[in-house]
Amino acid sequence: MSDALFALQNPTEEHHLLRQMVRGFVTEAVEPQADEHDKTGELNRGLLKRCAELGLCGVTVPSEWGGAGLDVCASVLVHHELAKSDPGFTLAYLTHAVLFTNNFFHAANDEQRRRLLAPVLAGERIGAMGMTEPGVGTDVLGMKTTARRLGDEYVLDGQKALITNAPDADIFLVYARMADGSRADRITTFVVERGAPGLSTPPKTRKMGMRASTLGEIVMEGCRIPRANLVGEEGTGLVHMMRNLEIERLTLAAISLGIADRCMDIMVRYASERQAFGKPISEFGQIQRYIAESYAKTEAARALIYTVARDCGPERRNRIGTDAAKLFAAPVAKEVADNAMQVLGGWGYCEEFKVERFLRDAKLIELGGGTLEAHQKNLTKDLVRSAGPAT
After folding, report:
1. Is residue 294 part of a domain?
2. Which positions are catalytic?
3. What value does the mean pLDDT of the chain take?
């Protein structure tokens, strides 16, 4: 169902080859482990290493720095295809490849790239990003984590919560407020490496879905890091944060699309094979409504996501588009998964058909990377600001 419309998005030959490669990888390596890792709740480091071997951990990193040198459309495509099989692992991959790697590359200087990037691209060190705090989610400007200069070091104090990959990560991109000022523009970005004095990550947090990625806290108590791990200049963290949120929201929307695609496939196949009252249930009006409405919304989400992706990049801001894509796609994924469960009836509630896993996974995207309410607020403010006078 997705191939025809994807062809209308003017993909390059590289996009076609990338999709073919990722689909083969999903069939061979991701799908066989998805159910098991949902049960164990463990991040599969070996699978992430396989992603690195295929060049997927640096899709948006220029080739001269060891990445694939591709565009945001390529990153969206990878997340979309992976999520058709295992949204939980895809979230762990997103955190590593987008929230850490993409963000770090575009904010760091050449010395930092030479020193820190290669093992991340190789999947030897897992990345995470520390922004959310126990009492601070959407209101990122209210963060309490502080940083202060002490000779040739910085000392960080604070706690980050609900951080994907935190229990497993080897390297963190952390946002903190400079202790000598309270203004928003004093938010600063730091790299904190596992083993830094004063850094700890408590045991993982149990969660409803997306279980193939781990979730936890980053605790910094007098955490000392070298001055060389300051990313950019003091006070430039807000720019890094806002720029990266856009690609994060778009790739989260792509995960939603992957969930919707897989659930569409499951429900259509089931409805064509399941018999009731002497005929396939696909001939019953209510089943047709579930299928038809799910298809229409899934295709609308696909068109929006890939259209927005073509107009995104490190130097091309598109907050309206990325907010709109996630605002629309996240509820679509949950609705399509729920519709699939209705079509399958009691079997949909059982693990065998996987719909219950996709429904659990879908909910997270309405919350993570910005709540739906935050996207509504952003969109309205941006549209009002750009509107001309009423006529």
Report:
1. yes
2. 248
3. 94
